[in-house]
Design goal:
single chain; alpha/beta; YbaK protein; 8-stranded mixed sheet; 8 strands
Length: 154
């Protein structure tokens, strides 16, 4: 299980800093208040199970992922569902509310939603419910080795 310290060390190698807050950042709304940005600029990481495949989608805090688009982007079949709290911990190594796109296990596929490109910089979680990482979409794709796709309804 990766800690915020692990994420800090990992991102430091890319010249990216982690911000920590005394207030919670476990929802897009809370994170936006802590960071001082719009909810849309929060790069929320949401875990889905597609069939039996764990998929982490990083998207704007003001959007919802559309299951059909997600399956098409990854060429997967099966039901798209939200995992329970225990599954989130087991698949990602993070607690719900602090899931981030960094240092995820190899079996978790990562999708970076194209909607994030609306902003020059977005703010992802760093592995706990009181953190944010200012990052560009290009950096997100490179660091996570994620694929970019449009998987949200506009």
């Amino acid at each position: 299980m990766a800690s915020i310290q692990d994420v800090k060390e990992y991102l430091k190698g890319f010249g990216i800093e982690v911000w920590e807050f005394s207030r919670p950042t476990s929802t897009a709304e809370e994170a936006a208040q802590a960071v001082g940005c719009s909810v849309a600029e929060i790069a929320k990481t949401v875990l889905f199970i597609v069939g039996d495949v764990p998929v982490a989608v990083v998207t704007c805090g003001d959007l919802k992922v559309k299951g059909a688009l997600l399956k098409k982007a990854l060429n997967l079949k099966g039901k798209v569902r939200f995992p329970g709290r225990d599954e989130v911990r087991r698949f990602t190594g993070y607690e719900p509310g602090g899931v981030c796109p960094f240092l995820l296990p190899d079996e978790v596929k990562i999708v970076i939603d194209s909607s994030l490109r609306r902003f020059p910089r977005v703010y992802a979680a760093a592995g706990n419910d009181r953190s944010a990482v200012p990052i560009t979409v290009e950096e997100l794709i490179k660091i996570t080795d994620g694929i970019e796709a449009s998987v949200c309804e506009s």
